[in-house]
Amino acid sequence: MDLELTDKVALVAGGSSGIGRAIATVLSEEGCKVAILARTASNLKDTARQINTATGNMVISVKCDVTSKRQIESAVRKVTNKLGPIDILVCNAGGPPSGIFEQFGDGDWDIAYQLNLKSTIRLCMQVVPSMKERRWGRIINITSVAAQQPIDNLILSNTARAGVHGFTKTLANEIAPFGVTVNCICPGYTATERLQELAQQISKSTGVSPKKVRAGWEKNIPAGRLAEPRELGYLAAYLASDKAGYLTGVAINLDGGFVKSI
Ligand code: NAD
Known about the structure:
Shape: globular
Largest sheet: 7 strands, parallel
CATH architecture of the largest domain: 3-Layer(aba) Sandwich
Structural class: alpha/beta
Order of helices and strands: EHEHEHEHEHEHHHE
Number of strands: 7
Distance between the termini: 29 Å
Bound molecules: nicotinamide-adenine-dinucleotide
Strand content: 5-15%
Low-confidence stretches: none
């Protein structure tokens, strides 16, 4: 199936590693002109260079902390000046810290809100008017299975991501008549470096080996394994394509069957 993504302009936030990097890579393989955003310029530049070497297509990087309104506005301006108006927006960033309700104070909630919900809203504010005007656009919000089935010890994530789902569904209904779709991808446990680090941290605090920590996660996944980051990339590329024009306002779990509800 040809996804017909050649020369579409894609902005992938949190694109220097993990799921964001994999999505940026697959979109670049499909012919998009890709801009990746993250906070650390050196990592970003290396990632952009590596994706460009692998695919031969244009990849640029823009340093941007997505918790900053000013930096988001400036980054979107830079991307638009260099590549043209944004056709595909992927809202992604790191996750908030783990912990239970009584561990967190007022400021922790603000940070989680800024990182996972407000960043999505602000990025959309920058691209939606142009997408509506051009009567074509694709917005893909990366959340988590935690928004579908809250995960113990992740109260900040469970709460902020559910907000993204409400925002996505409402915005999707408002802008569907303009040919713009808005959807969420909810990753389950995905084999990124971040997850490997988490296994190491759990191992240090519990004495259980990282291999056993991973096996514990896999035991709760009907598919019996973690997701590969590229699998998220394939789904994002489909959602970004013209072929997915009738698919909007949904949250798709890519989780090997982890979420138990129907
Ligand atoms: P990751 O830490 O590997 O990647 C996060 C990316 O976001 C990096 O490029 C990082 O530099 C960037 N980033 C972080 N904070 C930022 C900020 N303030 N401004 C700009 N960029 C920022 O994480 P990942 O495993 O790829 O996960 C991506 C998202 O998916 C996260 O929100 C995570 O919570 C969620 N998720 C991951 C998993 C998993 O198993 N890996 C499962 C469910 C949900």
